[in-house]
What does this fold into?
Amino acid sequence: MTMRVKDWMRRRPVTISPHETLRTAWRIIREHRIRHLPVVEQGRLVGIVTDRDLRHALPSRAASLEMHEVAFLAEKVRIWEVMARAVVTIHRDAPIEEAAHLLLKYRIGGLPVVKGETLVGIITKTDLLRALIHRQQGQAPRQPSRKTARKPQRRSSARS
It folds into this structure.
């Protein structure tokens, strides 16, 4: 039995408008614990922005800017200025092996799932790993929970 993207994708992905700010994008990414944020305008997928894009758009911590200056920049830069416009996408009925191939070929971590120009979901490396594990265990697909496990906090190396 062929596993399809539609069986493993996340439906109704969190999105952002190209007119929003970097600060808004950071808030969304942190709040939802995601790394890929499709950019949608008037119902059409027009781009994608990742946590890496956002990090590269702001000055490094080594820069001589004060925190309020970085915050000011984050409020001025718009998503359309930093988003990738040439988005690699996949159709919901494609086999998951095709999704895996595209992720490897383009060295990306997620694929917006489209029907025409309309975004209907997103599939990530994590979703494909989940599918692989379920295939190995002979289980049926199930929609992922919005709740995800949190990474353990690093302990300070300073000793008291």
In short: Residues 3 and 97 are 8 Å apart (CA to CA). The two ends are 57 Å apart (CA to CA). The chain has one domain: 5-137. Confidence is low (pLDDT under 50) at residues 146-160.
